[in-house]
Amino acid sequence: MSSTDLPGDRPFVLLATRAEDGPADEEYALFLRYTGLPPERLRRVRLEREPMPAIDLDAVSGVLVGGSPFNASDPLERKSAVQRRVEAEMAQLVAEVVERDAPFLGACYGVGTLGTHLDAPIDGTYAEPISVVEVSLTDAGRDDPLTAGMPATFSAFVGHKEAISALPPSATLLASSPTCPVQMFRLGRNVYATQFHPELDVDGIVTRIHAYAGYGYFGADELDLTLAAVRRAPVTAPSRLLRTFVERYAR
C-alpha cells in the first residue's frame, strides 16, 4: 500500500527529543521512509526545543515516539530542566493515551515513558550496549496484529542504559531477548513500546554512534568495536512494525 492509498487524512505525530540536528533530522527521515508517510502526514514535534503542543487524539491517526538521550531512571538532581519538562508532558499524554487506548508506538524511549506510567521498575539491570541482538516473539507476539507475520526470531538494533526489569501483569509481553527480557510489550489493544529501534538502518545507527560517542554508551577506545558490532548481522525485519502500524491506524 502506497502513502496515497492510506485511508483518511489525519496525520501521525512523531515526538522527538534529540538536541543534535544531524541525528534528529535523520531520525525523522527514517520514520518517513519506513512508515511510508509523506511529511504532511508525519508531524514532528521536537520536545527538546519547545513545550509539547496540545495533541487532540481525535484529530490524529496515532502517536510515535523516537529514541532519546533522556533516561527515566536518572536521579532527579541529574535531570535538566528540559528533561523534567519533557517527562511531565509525556506523562500527561501517556496517561490519556492509555486511558483511551489510542494508537501509540514508542521506540526505546517509549519503554521509559510507558514503564513510568505503569510504575514498572526501570533500571540498568538489562542495559544493552549499541549492537545487534536476536529478538524472539512470544506466543502473544506471534498472534498480535502488529507483529503477526514477522519472523519468530529477528535481528534488531539496540543501545540503551536502562530497561524494564519486570513487566507488570497489566501489560502483554510481545518480544524478548536473552540480554533484555522486555523488548516489546502492549497495553490494552493499541498502545505499544519497543526497547529495540524499529526505525534504524545501518547508516542511521552509524550516525548515532558518532553523534553520541561521548555519552557513555561505549568507551572512548571502543568506537571501532561498536561500529563492527552493528554490522555483524543484517537487520531488516523491525522496520515492518512502522509500516504495519501506519496501515493499521491511518484514518
Short description, anyone?
The chain is of the alpha/beta class. Helices cover 30% and strands 24% of the residues. The protein has one domain: Class I glutamine amidotransferase (GATase) domain (Rossmann fold, 3-Layer(aba) Sandwich).
Key structural traits:
nine-stranded mixed beta sheet, 11 strands, Rossmann fold, 251 residues, 30% helix, two-stranded antiparallel ribbon, alpha/beta
Low-confidence stretches: none
Helix share bin: 25-40%
CATH superfamily: Class I glutamine amidotransferase (GATase) domain
Strand order of the largest sheet: 2-1-3-4-11-10-9-6-7
Largest sheet: 9 strands, mixed
Rg calculated over all Cα atoms: 17 Å
Name the CATH architecture. Answer: 3-Layer(aba) Sandwich
Binned strand content: 15-25%
CATH class: Alpha Beta
CATH topology (level 3) name: Rossmann fold
> Whole-number average pLDDT?
94
Q: Looking at the structure, what is the overall shape?
A: globular
Instruction: Please give the domain count.
Output: 1
Oligomer: single chain
Structural class comes to: alpha/beta
Q: Helix count, per DSSP? A: 7
The end-to-end span amounts to 14 Å
SSE pattern: EHEEHEHEEHEEEEEHHH
Description:
This protein is an alpha/beta fold. The chain has one domain (3-249): Class I glutamine amidotransferase (GATase) domain (Rossmann fold). 30% of the residues lie in helices and 24% in strands. It is built from seven helices and eleven strands. It has helices at 21-35, 81-100, 109-117, 139-143, 202-211, 223-229, 240-249; strands at 12-16, 42-46, 62-65, 104-107, 122-123, 128-137, 153-160, 163-164, 171-177, 180-187, 191-194. The strands form two sheets. Strands 2-1-3-4-11-10-9-6-7 form a nine-stranded mixed sheet, sandwiched between helices. The protein is globular and about 50 Å long. It starts with 11 loop residues before the first strand and ends with a helix.
